[in-house]
Design a protein that fits this description.
Layout (H helix, E strand, L loop, with lengths): L2 H13 L4 H14 L5 H10 L4 H9 L11 H6 L10
Helix pairs in contact: 1-2
């Protein structure tokens, strides 16, 4: 799959999680930051999308420990939660 198609698929998956909170957090993170990601970062994010929303939200909000597989600069960036824009 070419990069453009992969990004479209990842964006769709990031914004169609099943809960509004997860959509804003995961979709907002993708929209705001994916432009600078290399293939390794895209692989990380794609794997993250296979995790349960409750786990991702817990890791980001630091209410549950982040498993070693998801630790690192992208999770640390995600934990800043400064990318979420909630429409009024």
């Amino acid at each position: 799959m070419n990069r453009e198609d992969r990004l479209k698929r990842l964006r769709f998956r990031a914004w169609h999680r099943g809960t509004r909170e997860a959509d804003y957090m995961i979709g907002g993170f993708f929209d705001r930051l994916h432009q600078g990601w290399d293939e390794e970062a895209l692989d990380w994010f794609e794997g993250l999308l296979n995790q349960e929303d409750a786990d991702i939200l817990g890791w980001v909000m630091r209410t549950i420990p982040v498993p070693a597989a998801w630790e690192g600069p992208l999770m640390e960036r995600m934990q800043r939660v400064d990318y979420v824009d909630i429409p009024r």
